[in-house]
């Protein structure tokens, strides 16, 4: 079963479909000017998966005649609502800061996620996984 997860959120003309049976999110756009966001996301995912030594994810771009899509392997876990009180999120914030320091250890080649908030992190057994790399930059 598939379902629309997001439709052109943030005014970026990128929509997201959840493909539950395949264990994928599929981001897609018909706006050629927005292809760069999907390309950035793939670069960011590849970089990040290498950093966390995750060889299981198979993320790929599909370019069709009139649109581009990106298939992203799903992380299992929970999302923390970014507007929750600090007293409810402090534990998770410390976890992501420690994780970020661990993966961003190459100061000569800084990496930027671009919009890292709690809404772009999935926690599985209290281990953070950063998602949504559309604004990835080196």
Structural summary, described in words:
With 138 residues, the chain is an alpha+beta fold. The protein is built from two helices and eight strands, in the order E-E-E-H-E-E-E-H-E-E. A hairpin with a 2-residue loop joins strand 7 and strand 8. The protein starts with a strand and ends in an 8-residue tail after the last strand.
Short description:
By secondary structure, this protein is α+β, with helices and mostly antiparallel strands.
Major sheet attributes: 5 strands, antiparallel
Number of helices: 2
Mean pLDDT: 89
Indicate the overall shape.
Answer: globular
Strand content: 25-35%
SSE string: EEEHEEEHEE
* Secondary-structure-derived class: alpha+beta
Point out poorly predicted stretches. Answer: none
Total beta strand runs? 8
Strand order of the largest sheet: 1-2-3-5-4
The value of Rg in angstroms is 15 Å
State the distance separating the first and last CA atoms.
36 Å
Helix content: 25-40%
Give structural attributes.
about 140 residues; five-stranded antiparallel β-sheet; 8 strands
Describe the secondary-structure layout.
Blueprint: E1 2-6, E2 15-19, E3 24-29, H1 35-51, E4 60-63, E5 68-73, E6 78-79, H2 86-103, E7 121-124, E8 127-130
Antiparallel strand pairs: 1-2, 2-3, 3-5, 4-5, 6-7, 7-8
């Amino acid at each position: 079963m598939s379902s629309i997860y997001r439709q052109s959120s943030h005014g970026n003309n990128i929509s997201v479909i959840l493909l539950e049976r395949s264990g994928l999110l599929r981001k897609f756009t018909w706006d050629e000017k927005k292809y760069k966001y999907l390309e950035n996301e793939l670069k960011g995912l590849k970089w990040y998966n290498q950093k966390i030594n995750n060889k299981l994810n198979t993320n790929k771009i599909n370019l069709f005649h009139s649109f581009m899509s990106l298939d992203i392997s799903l992380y299992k876990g929970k999302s923390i609502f970014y507007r929750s009180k600090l007293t409810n999120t402090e534990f998770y914030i410390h976890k992501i800061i420690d994780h970020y320091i661990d993966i961003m250890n190459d100061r000569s080649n800084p990496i930027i996620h671009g919009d890292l908030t709690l809404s772009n992190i999935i926690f599985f057994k209290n281990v953070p996984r950063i998602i949504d790399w559309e604004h990835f930059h080196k």
